[in-house]
Amino acid sequence: MTTEAAEYFSRELLGWYRQNKRVLPWRMNRDPYRIWVSEVMLQQTRVDTVIPYYERFMDKFPTAEALAEAPEAEVLKCWEGLGYYSRARNLQAGAQEVVSRHDGVVPDDKAAVSALRGVGPYTAGAIMSIAFNRPEPAVDGNVMRVLSRYFCLEDDIAKPSTRVSIEKLAASLIPEGAAGDFNQALMELGALVCTPKSPGCLTCPVMAHCEGRMAGKEHILPIKTKAKPPRPELRLAALVTGTGSHAGKILIRQRPDTGLLARMWELPHIAGPSIAAAEDSDMPKKRRRAGAKAEPVPQRVREEQMDILCRTLAGEERVLIRPTSWWGEAEHVFSHLVWDVQVYITEFGFMLEEAAAAQEASALLADRAAEAHAVYAWQHDAGNEPAAEAAEADNLASLPANYRWIGPEDMSNYAFPNVFLRILREYWETVD
DNA sequence: AATCCGGGGTA
DNA sequence: TACCCAGGATT
Questions:
Q1: Average pLDDT over residues A57-82
Q2: What are the tens digits of pLDDT across the range A31-47?
Q3: Are A39 and A155 contained in the same domain?
Q4: Residue-number span of the structural domain to which A385 is assigned
């Protein structure tokens, strides 16, 4: 690679960017807090998706101090639907660090910015270059693709070591005094011209010296090893309908403080029988394509699933419900996981007389009745209430602390992952 | 170095 | 359908 080709690249790309850059809300000024928020939102997320979220977020949390002081639930609600919710929690933690350690001002200091929660090598480089015009590289997926093609680099960009070497290359290309524009130019080219598939070489400002294209390899670059496919999981979810004082409401619960979808709200649900166990059966293993209609599930299986769902919630969470009917299905795709969510309508509370009658009819139901009875006794030991008064458990049973009854008007107070948003919105429409 | 963490656009 | 995306934290 010649020095001339590199200088040509930087010069032409910078000129192209200054003529063609998009008007975006985070390009109004160089407020480092605004840049920071935009860069975090843009992690693994497209510009068009981010824009409306960014507008709402900056309207609600215009400064690091405002974000630092906000209740976390409000921040999550503002992030609802955007995904990777740890970004929101880390961003707020970072804002709190800025307030407590840097007097509310994002520091013009690479080490200090890198130390902020949720700020990694890319985001640190982006903030330092775009907000402060410091000559730091900001290497994301776009930049790795553009540079892999232009310099015909055949290293696997899935390897961390490749990102490090490309960072050194990117740093060497930054024109004097133009770090912010140049880094954005690299990403803008990757987003608008040097796209993953069918790159627009004919409109590319640096096509003339692109080594990847000259080698005829622009379509196979960058080299990237494939990720493992996500594993499928069956989830059984309960739309628990309230009665009495909770008529018209349904039951939701909050997830734990850590792990998947931390502190988000959801329908109570459990993991279904493992996929592996299902495939051990003599059923034909048909791979269902996403978007295709599911195989019809036999009523027998529906009843088994309802039963497992009710018994498990009673046994593990002390939530007493009884099955009503199958409601529908929803899919939720994570990067490493696919949930097949089967949703069942259930009623809150459990009538002991009914359970006793069922005891004679079915061994499975007998198990549930026995468990429910035990749970009921556990709940009412303290009060010494006679079991006969269990008919309206609705008003007697207390819920675990992470459970809430909500109506449609309460949706704006809780942050849900998309799959439960879809289910709940559709459900509220049908009950109206 | 591998895994976990969402969701949506694209060809 | 497969791939990709303005990645970072954890282990």
A1: 96
A2: 999 999 999 999 999 99
A3: yes
A4: 231-280+296-431
